[in-house]
Amino acid sequence: MSQNAQFLTNKAPPPRRVGFRDLLAPMTPEEFLDGYFDRKPLHLPGSADRFAEVFSWDRATALLDMTTLWSASTLKVVLNGKLARPEEYCRPQQNRDGAPIAQPDPRKVQALIRKGATISLNMVETMSPEIAAVAAALQCWFDGETVCNIYCSWGGYQGFSSHFDFHDVFVLQIDGTKTWNIYEGQFDQAANIAGYRSDSFPDDYTAKARGAVAMEATMTPGDVLYIPRGRYHDALATSEATLHLTFGVEFMSGCYFLGAIADALQQDRFFRQPLPRFDTSDAHRKHLQTLADRVHTYMLEPGVARGIREQQRHRAFAHCFPGYALPSATPPRLFRVRALRTQLVRRGPGWRLEWPNGAQELTADEAKLAEWLLKQDFVAADEAVAALGDTLPVPALLERLSAVGLIDAI
Prior knowledge:
Layout: H1 20-24, H2 29-35, E1 42-44, H3 57-64, E2 75-79, E3 82-83, H4 86-89, E4 90-94, E5 100-104, H5 106-114, E6 118-121, H6 129-142, E7 145-154, E8 168-175, E9 178-186, H7 203-209, E10 213-219, E11 224-227, E12 231-237, E13 241-250, H8 254-265, H9 281-299, H10 302-317, E14 334-337, E15 343-347, E16 350-355, E17 358-362, H11 364-373, E18 378-380, H12 381-388, H13 394-404, E19 407-409
Antiparallel strand pairs: 1-11, 2-3, 2-6, 4-5, 6-7, 7-13, 8-11, 8-13, 9-10, 9-12, 14-18, 14-19, 15-16, 16-17
């Protein structure tokens, strides 16, 4: 068996994925990250068929028809800016584990649609390979957990009222037209914590905090809209029906760090001791100082930083990537491509991989594989073999490019 053959399956190569560069084209990732990410919204027009292979009304219908997938928490109905109550569109049922749930009733949902309701299908990021590929690409670039929601709206009716999200938002317009208002107001460091989410505030607060409209974007099929975390926005369908996908990228914050060290510090005997009586102020102050000193010492241990990075990595790469290569019993071997500010440059007869803080000389074979990899967000070893295995010893070259830091095993 050749070195390449061990990575091949009897499956045909997968269709071309829509990656991060496709979402931004003709803008580069570097231009987006330097000029827009976490700073200001961006509307990128695209060709009408840009996302034709990612999603469609037929696929939305097929998902909705899988009725046992949905509950009141994953299928939401919004009418005139307000969430419908589960009893308005659901019926009591049992889920696949036999537990009671409120399951959407298609007749009730469609009755609300006829009144102009918007429906959202939540957490669909792994329900099709095409959607999962977009979510995985975003995770590769941002190291943040990514979820996807589907929104179906009908013209002239308000769905969600003005709000902000606690994650960065990428909207992909699939069909129809929708006009978005992006406001000047931005909530500082929004988070999925009570008091720091949009639903923590009444409508009159939002109406004042959002400020004036800073940007109006009319989305047509193939368009992409980026909205930074915390920025107030709303949208209105302007065609008979409209369909879009929203990808939300959420990052770990210092709150997750506090939770992680709190769990670990419970193992320290001193932290399990009762506090001194509150009337003994000197003893109380001394005890708290000792607690603070122990927290500081623990936080400086190298293993703590490694553990937090590993938690970030797990959250970023736990979902959306291919996990099976059936009928093979061996899971796919996956790599993310670390392409940010990376260039493959010709140097006389040779090649060099260049980063802002370093460079690496490459052989002609390594350069050929690197050139192909730099067009990907992530890749399975068998995909690389299928693409270049006729001319290159791909598995050995993947090991080499992993060692120099161009790719990283997921």
